[in-house]
Amino acid sequence: MELIYQITNELWKKILNWMKEEKNQERFLWVCFGISLLPLLALSFFNHPVMDDFNYGILTHRAFMENKGLGFVIPVLQAAVQRSVNLWHSWQGTFSFAVIGALRPSIFTEKLTFTHTFILLALLITGMVYFSKIVLHRILGLSRHAAMIVAILVMTLCIQYVPVGLEAFYWWIGSIGYTGLFGVMLVLFAKLFLSKYEKHISAKRMAAMTALAFLLSGGMYPILLLTAVLMVLNLLDILIGKQYDKTMKIQTAAMNVIFFAGFILNVAAPGNRRRQSNFDPRTPLEAIYKSYTKSIDYLFECTNVIIALVMIGLFVYMLYKLKDTKFSFRCPFMFTLVSYSMVVVMWVPAIYAVRFISGGRYYNILYYGVIMFYTANVIYYAGWLRRQYEKCGTQVQKLIRDAAPVLMGVLGIFCVVLGFLKINIVTDLEEITSATALKSMVYGEAQVYHQEIKEREAMYNDPNIREVEVEEVTYRPELLYFGTLTPDPDESRNQAMCDYYDKDYMVKLVPEEEEGAEEEASEETGDSEDAEKGEDE
């Protein structure tokens, strides 16, 4: 026992000494973060296209099937653009999203559906890492390791507590326009901030920012509106600011012209007017007011004790790490108002157009916004307190340093008590996205679902079978299942799948005793889908 104790004690000391270095703290967190993603990535291999994946991919899938070899590239791209044009006239103006949606990897083969999750996670992670690197490291002055530590914490909260994981990382059409373009938006914002900080825009960065801005101008409306607000504020600041040269003013103005050309093309689409005719919109002022009130309610609704504890820990960490930065952190209350208004902006399109938000994909990006709002304010207020401390006299600073252990002890006790009172291990564990993915695989639900859908896809892709009748799947994994065929052959999703797979008839069989309940559920789903599609952006 004595030997075991000594070995354990020495090992623990080595671990603590190793963790004292900031770069090792970052490495440790990256390893933990990577491990946390493994269940999500593993579950992706059981994923399959669903719902509007077929609707958006009809033309591109057909173009691929009709062209062999590398000759399919141009026809597929042309088909994606044509699908975007069709939807612009008939459904909504989100032209760049429609192209991306039509080019999902699984149009070539369902075996590539797993790549959806890899791509979506990569976009979100890239956006958050790049944003943190630029804002926290390059502009604020934190070390690169500290900036990455903050990024990992934020990404973990965003991914593991995302409201609807299916619509964040598995359903291509529901995810790429929201979670995917949210990551793209963060990259653009970071480049804009860096350009202002350096007071210079290189030709390479100008090309990248213009391309990203135009891409977002054809995206979903909550991200589109937030990008538009920031683009305008950035333009006004640069045009007015005497510290920016004429070249930078012209570059920024040109970038805004291109962005708002896409913005107008998006908003002015005939399809938007057709959809909007089904709803009674609010006035702009009413939409803004309601967005503030509803977003405050959501702020409390989506905040759990884990998020609170992480933010408390981050606040203490930043109090120490910001000692070497030169940023002034002035007007913290104004910063809170402005940063929260940026979150509220994303609420406005849905509150204005259809008066409510129902899509999980929409709530996902609102949640990302809340986490980033919390993080930004925790860092800002920690910096402000740090600057107030530095302004104090030597004696006051000494008193604060002497009282710090007591204050830290009280805060530690508070966190422990809060954890014991509020954390329910079973319930809270089920809210974690990776735990949900792991549960689906451990219980075998994902495997059974995957096998059944694979058997169907073999039938769907068989040109000799013209009429398809299937039963409901045995299990509905929470992160994978978003509906299949319906009992009504004329229902829109059935028709879309018929067009996609070139079938005459596709329908789901329902036992007689369930027909009544199925019809009622189908009607409710249809109403819900109509509402979501109207709000979808």
Structure write-up:
The chain has 537 residues and is an all-alpha fold. Among the domains are: 52-110, no CATH class; 446-535, no CATH class. Helices cover 75% and strands 2% of the residues. It has 24 helices and 2 strands. It has helices at residues 2-19, 22-43, 52-66, 73-90, 95-102, 114-139, 144-160, 166-169, 172-198, 203-217, 221-240, 246-267, 270-276, 284-301, 305-321, 332-345, 348-353, 360-391, 394-422, 425-431, 433-442, 445-460, 492-501, 512-535; strands at residues 467-471, 505-509. The protein has a two-stranded parallel sheet with strand order 1-2. Helix 23 (492-501) links the parallel strand 1 (467-471) and strand 2. It is globular. The N and C termini lie far apart (64 Å). 39% of the residues are buried. Residues 521-537 have low confidence and may be disordered.
